[in-house]
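User: My collaborator sent over this chain with a note saying "see what the structure looks like." That's all I know about it. Can you take a look?
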Amino acid sequence: MTRTVAVIQARLGSQRFPEKVLAKLGGYSLLEWVVRRVQRSELLDRVLVATTQEPLDDRLVAECRRLRVEVRRGSTNDVLARFVAAIEDDTADAVVRVCADNPFVDPGCVDQVIREFRDASADYGFNHRPHGACDYADGFGAEVISAELLRRLAAMSLTPQQREHVTLAVVDGSVPVRVHACIAPPQLAHPHLRFDVDESSDLARLGQLVDTCLLTMSSDAATVLEASTKWSESA
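Assistant: Without extra context I'll predict from the sequence alone. Here is the result:
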């Protein structure tokens, strides 16, 4: 039986938008949106947050405790090492990487990438960004990597950038493995749309969408897309 763990990557030291994962969207922190939605996945055995040892992230740890979600702390810049340390006590076969600035990450989309990753016997699978034939809107999905490959990458001599971005050595082709890209169903195939939060203006835009269209943490990707389309047309 395959065991799959989700690791939500989060820290408060963002350069473009400091402390964004604690910023409010519809009355809840971005982190709460992500945690609650990922926890609804049916194929995950464990969900945890991986943050840094920086004192600034003490507040993030406190938020995790409020949310009653497990949190692990590790390297600030070597995020790859942080992920491996987060699962060092786990027998997981696969790790789902989720970024804490994707408040509309969809549990159904997460389950789909896990399902296809398993069916394809892949080492790495994704549906979290528009790339090639993978035409989901940005912000709904995630990426899955085998725990064995994750640990192998951590033991390799990679660039600081490859270690910071965890799976970059696979994505850029430096480490050739079996990759599977999920193709979105027609109703979710909107690769020109973004629902992640990089800057404060992104949060303001999504805040207007949530407030105007009454979106909640249980709204699925299709509902968010439909609301976004109607909202854009009426704006």
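A starting point for your reply to your collaborator: Residues 12 and 56 are 7 Å apart (CA to CA).
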